[in-house]
Prior knowledge:
The chain is of the alpha/beta class. 18% of the residues lie in helices and 29% in strands. The chain has one domain (6-117): YbaK protein, CATH 3.90.960. The chain contains 3 helices and 7 strands; from the N terminus they run E-E-H-E-H-E-E-E-H-E.
Amino acid sequence: MRGHDVSHAAKCMIVKVKTGKKDRKFILAVVPGDAKINFDVLSNMFGGEARFADQENAERLAGSVAGTVLPFSFNEELTLIVDPSLKEHEFIYFNAARLDQSVELKTADYLRITNPRMERITGAEIKKKQDYF
C-alpha cells in the first residue's frame, strides 16, 4: 500500500509479559510486517504470560497513539527485541508516527543505532526460559 513489500516493514507492537501477581515486563517487539509474534516464545523467555499490552499502556510507553509505534524505545520500562529475520533486507520501512507515510532506513543503521536484543520471536519455534540465559 505504501510502495514497499510488507515483509520489509518493521511492525512494532507493545507486549506485556505478566511475570507475577503484580509484576509486569513490557516489550517493544519489532518483527517483519508479514510475520506474527510467537507469544509462547516471549512467555518462555521471561517466565510469564505474554499478550498484547492494553492500549493505554502501549501508548504511554511508546509515546504515540496505537498504530503509529516507532521501532525505537525511549522508555526505560520498554525492552526492545527485534526478530533477526529483519536483517534479511537492506532497508526496513516503518511508519513515520503517522498511518499514511513510511520512513526508509538502512537495516544496518537501524541495528547500529538501537543495538537491540535480537531474538527469534516469530514463527512456531518455542524455547525454554533457561535457553535465554
